[in-house]
């Protein structure tokens, strides 16, 4: 099955990605612990109810898919990766059979993650093309599969979790969100996380002594993890181009055509020894801008404020930075330095500074 991911071959680990420790701890608690220590969830409300699905949301390229691959690889789980387009079929009833077979397969190969990318296409708001009867039938079949998982979880026999990922959480029908009560934002990396991501991509690459990864991390604000990977690739490509030009293109063409092993070996050694320079990164930054737009990121954060998990202090801090300056001014004017920040933010400040 083409959507079945062999995570043992990919060998993705949490050390290969850079996401908040809070997110990893939450996923470990709601996925790893119940599957491996089900007895801890056989008393009280946990015996009667289960968590349900998990929704990961955030700007494109922030590592939502990589998080799931790392979970599957490190926690000994299999992974079925699909898109809503994989479920949709022009033939009546075919989509429902595909959805049913996916849940059936997941049960057989459990422990298993069913990962649905671009899930907003499946759970989109009413009025956005959800009027066709076969799409409603597909949704019903899909949710029946999820309810079957929850019933199995109560008996401690499931071993399957559904994780949805989206760059557009605001397109998801709010009435369908209840199926995904665990919602976590995978946001843009901060400067420390950007430095870590750059280090991961450049760990087997030769860098000139003038290259300062910390400086590059500071210059790449609003870059996603995917943007940083593309930046490193562009810089490395620039370095190889520079080395290749030293041989002159005519010579490289002649060596490629002749197959002379000694000349090929000389070219290979030289290119392998190429260092990425500061100028290569400067050129790469002009070619690879940040893909996240300000308006879209603000839209995602606004949805996060209303519907997402607020436990990650790093995401909360990013969201309230724009309020801190006016809040401090308000504190000085009103002489409320002794009043707790939370009181000022949730009561007086919104009252005196309404959103326009």
UniProtKB/TrEMBL annotation:
GO molecular function terms noted in the UniProt entry: ATP binding; ATP hydrolysis activity
Lineage: Eukaryota, Fungi, Dikarya, Basidiomycota, Agaricomycotina
Keywords: ATP-binding, Membrane, Mitochondrion, Mitochondrion outer membrane, Nucleotide-binding
Top-level taxon in the UniProt lineage: Eukaryota
AAA+ ATPase domain location: 50-192
Keyword Hydrolase attached: no
Similarity section: Belongs to the AAA ATPase family.
InterPro entries: AAA+_ATPase, AAA_lid_3, ATPase_AAA_core, ATPase_AAA_CS, Mito_OM_Translocase_MSP1, P-loop_NTPase
One Pfam family it belongs to: AAA
PANTHER family assigned to the protein according to its UniProt record, in alphabetical order: AAA ATPASE, PUTATIVE (AFU_ORTHOLOGUE AFUA_2G12920)-RELATED (PTHR45644:SF56), AAA ATPASE, PUTATIVE (AFU_ORTHOLOGUE AFUA_2G12920)-RELATED-RELATED (PTHR45644)
Entry protein name: AAA+ ATPase domain-containing protein
Subcellular location: Mitochondrion outer membrane
GO cellular component labels: mitochondrial outer membrane
Main location: mitochondrion
PROSITE patterns membership: AAA
Membrane topology: Single-pass membrane protein
Spans through the membrane: none
């Amino acid at each position: 099955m083409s959507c079945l991911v062999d995570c043992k071959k990919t060998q993705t680990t949490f050390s290969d990605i850079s996401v908040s420790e809070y997110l990893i701890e939450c996923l470990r608690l709601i996925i790893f612990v119940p599957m491996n220590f089900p007895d801890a969830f056989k008393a009280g409300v946990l015996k009667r109810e289960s968590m349900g699905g998990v929704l990961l949301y955030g700007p494109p390229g922030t590592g939502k898919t990589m998080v799931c691959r790392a979970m599957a690889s490190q926690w000994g789980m299999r992974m079925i990766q699909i898109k809503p387009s994989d479920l949709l079929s022009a033939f009546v009833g075919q989509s429902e059979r595909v959805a049913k077979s996916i849940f059936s397969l997941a049960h057989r190969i459990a422990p298993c993650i069913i990962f649905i990318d671009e899930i907003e296409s499946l759970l989109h708001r009413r009025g956005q093309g959800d009027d066709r009867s076969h799409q409603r039938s597909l949704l019903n079949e899909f949710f029946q599969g999820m309810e079957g998982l929850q019933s199995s979880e109560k008996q401690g026999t499931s071993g399957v979790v559904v994780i949805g990922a989206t760059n557009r959480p605001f397109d998801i029908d709010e009435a369908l969100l209840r199926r995904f009560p665990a919602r976590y934002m995978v946001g843009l990396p901060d400067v420390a996380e950007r430095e870590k991501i750059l280090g991961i991509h450049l760990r087997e690459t030769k860098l000139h002594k003038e290259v300062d990864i910390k400086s590059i991390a500071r210059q790449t604000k609003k870059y996603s993890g995917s943007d940083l990977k593309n930046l490193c690739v562009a810089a490395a490509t620039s370095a190889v181009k520079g080395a290749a030009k030293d041989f002159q293109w005519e010579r490289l063409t002649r060596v490629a055509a002749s197959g002379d092993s000694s000349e090929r070996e000389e070219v290979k050694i030289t290119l392998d020894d190429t260092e990425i320079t500061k100028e290569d990164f400067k050129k790469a930054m002009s070619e690879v801008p940040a893909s996240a737009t300000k308006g879209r990121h603000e839209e995602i954060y606004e949805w996060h404020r209303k519907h997402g998990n607020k436990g990650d202090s790093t995401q909360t801090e990013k969201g309230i930075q724009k309020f801190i300056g006016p809040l401090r001014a308000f504190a000085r004017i009103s002489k409320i330095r002794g009043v707790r920040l939370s009181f000022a933010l949730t009561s007086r400040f919104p009252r005196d500074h309404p959103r326009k």
